[in-house]
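Need the bound structure for alpha-D-ribofuranose, inputs here:
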Amino acid sequence: MAKRPRIAVVGSANVDLTTFSDQFPKPGETIFGQKFDLGFGGKGANQAVAARLCGADVFMVARVGDDLFGPSTIKNFEKLGIDATHVRQVSGVSSGVAPIFVDPSGQNRIIVVKGANDTLKPADVDAAADTLKSADCIVLQFEIPLETVYYTIKFARQNGIRCILNPAPAQPIDIKAIADLDYFVPNESEAEAISGMPVRNLDDAKRCAGKLLASGIRRVIITLGANGSLLAGSEGMEHVPAFNVKSVDSTGAGDAFIGSFATFLGEGLPEQEAVKRANLYAGLSTTGVGTQKSFYDRARFDAEWSKRGKA
Ligand code: RIB
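Answer from helper R.:
Posting the output first, comments after.
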């Protein structure tokens, strides 16, 4: 039986307000959309939920706001069996929210209002230190203050804990402050924004990964949507193809990739195999509407993997 990984996510929790529409309004215009979905989201929370549904023990370190969404977000973690001891409500601040717009092809546009996520500080990481030290992997994203991300990377290195960073949403960073990472996992647009190099195809992605490795980052995985992923390290680069799926909403697919990859790797699978499985897990998440609610549990995933994983 596979080892049960212990994964800590230091990151964001949002509520997603998703509108499905075949057109978008011009300034001053009001139009009708086709469908609406309200659900729990936030890149950190989504990654925690994906890891939990894949079978990991998961610990969340986050901040929620002083509104209706705060307590219900904490309850959602608890309902899913995620340890929310270090998810606290902050008074006088809203919860993180994300109005999301999905077009008929399943492509999304997202505006994140960080709210309470912006109050998660290095002192909160210290307050959760005992929990974090018990984890075998810490997962981070960019919807919390960068100083907290940098601090947590240092904390992970000092304590010999594997650390995975998903630099989403992209923003200018201090590459030296993230050099201690084990895995840097951007999508194409994040890789492009951070490296300053265009990423329009696999060859571009390879050049970009080469630049990121040369800047001191140990291992890079660039997720390429329907093109799968590029895994890159000092020994070389490997393209891991995606699986064919009928996509209706790609929101949260990157988060599904990260949470499942952390779990598969923590179970002791070889890296390339963990990426291949995470490609399928992320692809399957795009076949349903919403973020967390579109993620497969382990039994459903394993059933798909046994049909399609050998290909
Ligand atoms: O990656 C998808 C997530 O981005 C959404 O859940 C939204 O909350 C934003 O954080």
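Comments: The first strand starts at residue 6 and ends at 10. Residues 6 and 135 are 5 Å apart (CA to CA).
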